[in-house]
Write a structure and sequence with these properties.
Helix Hairpins, Ubiquitin-like (UB roll), globular, 37% helix
């Protein structure tokens, strides 16, 4: 897996050589996250928090809404860890604070332990303090308390002259958890070799400077041979999670989809590339591309405009299902347009009425006498609470992430 990195300092994306010298910075952080997010997870490292100079919380919240983020930097307390998870981070990266006592207070499946090593010894405190421990020592101690490792070869970081693959493989050999390699990775050959060994690659300087092309690297990991140059591509709606269609992708169409965010496929009947919705208007914005365990099938997660099927149906397989996101979408539309005569509009315009209805429905839920009454009253309460959510800009994902952060 390729994991592009966004290192935050002062609200900008930066790249440091050896953790000290700033080589470059970019202000288009959200656009960068949208692009990087198409390749899968992205690493977000809050350098300000790591250095004790404030944090980039508001920006991290936005990034977690755009892409699947593993977030690190300055996470030294359980409270801080849970706060980052409540932002929607898929994983959190724990460095200096990683210990059995600390990690055991947090959900194991959310934890990545950062191992920073310089010439075979673990370094901490922003790489300033060299310990007597080896990376292998740390893995043996912390393996039961985490779900993966970020292994950085510090002396290679930011140098773009290759990483220490043997050192990374030595960690792969003693753990069943996924290992993400970082530090100096700058060629597709390295990425392929590490991928074959089961390691992901966290990429920074080589991508930002243009030495490494992400589209070429991603396609190099895929197996087009089984399908005679094509890969079957399942297309899924980001919001509903329903399957929209099945298409086929060539190396070139995958690169275009990743680079532009416009879903592009290969037509077997016309023997040419085709961009979804270019003529019909039923476009697909690519949010994320995933490959399966054999690297011979793809999953495109998209934001669908209009209908996906050429027949005019929502999907080539089924109708649009009703769910909470569907209801939320209707309520959002009512809030944006506030049509005259709508009861929902009346609620949006009268805050006291909305709060009174929530109070009434909550009482009716707890006084319901049987299952049918509970269903009826909870349905009413859900409608009113979701109306309040829309009015205050609270999304379903916001609630989900906050609940998930409470998990132990």
């Amino acid at each position: 897996m390729i994991i592009p990195s966004i290192d935050l300092m002062g609200g900008k994306a930066v790249q440091l050589r050896q953790g000290e010298e700033k080589v470059l910075e970019r202000e288009d952080v959200l656009e960068l996250a949208e692009y990087f997010g198409r390749f899968g997870e992205i690493a977000v490292i809050d350098l300000d928090a790591a250095m004790g100079r404030g944090n980039n919380n508001e920006l991290i919240k936005k990034l977690c809404k755009i892409a699947h983020c593993r977030v690190g930097g300055g996470i030294r307390t359980v409270e801080r860890a849970k706060e980052i998870l409540s932002f929607g981070a898929k994983k959190i990266i724990i460095g200096t604070a990683a210990s059995k006592e600390f990690l055991s207070q947090l959900p194991k499946d959310k934890l990545i332990v950062a191992i920073d090593a310089k010439r075979g010894k673990v370094v901490t405190q922003g790489w300033q303090f060299e310990t007597e421990r080896t990376p292998e020592d740390l893995v043996k101690i912390l393996d039961p308390y985490c779900s993966g490792y970020l292994y950085t070869i510090v002396e290679k970081e930011g140098m773009m002259d290759g990483t220490n693959i043997d050192a990374i493989l030595s960690i792969e050999a003693i753990t069943n958890h996924p290992v993400t390699a970082a530090g100096g990775i700058s060629t597709i050959d390295e990425i392929i070799r590490l991928d074959q060994a089961g390691s992901s690659c966290q990429l920074g300087m080589a991508v930002y400077t243009g030495k490494l092309n992400l589209e070429d690297a991603y396609v190099a990991l895929l197996d087009f041979k089984k399908g005679n140059g094509l890969i079957p591509t399942i297309v899924q709606d980001k919001t509903t999670k329903q399957v929209l269609m099945l298409a086929y992708s060539s190396p070139e169409s995958v690169k275009i989809s990743l680079k532009t965010g416009k879903a592009t496929y290969y037509s077997r009947s016309r023997n040419e590339l085709w961009e979804k919705g270019k003529t019909s208007g039923n476009t697909q914005k690519v949010v994320q591309v995933k490959y399966d365990c054999d690297r011979d099938s793809l999953l495109y997660i998209v934001e669908q405009t209009g209908n996906a099927c050429h027949t005019g149906a929502y999907s080539c397989f089924e109708d649009r299902e009703f769910d909470f996101e569907y209801l939320y979408g209707i309520l959002s539309d009512r809030f944006a347009n506030q049509p005259e005569g709508s009861y929902t509009t009346k609620l949006y315009q009268n805050d006291d009425l909305l709060k009174r209805k929530i109070n009434e429905e909550a009482f009716e839920v707890i006084t319901a006498k049987n299952k049918d009454e509970v269903i009826w009253e909870v349905s009413d309460l859900t409608y009113f609470v979701m109306t309040l959510m829309v009015k205050n800009g609270v999304t379903i994902d916001d609630i989900k992430y906050h609940l998930e952060s409470r998990k132990k």
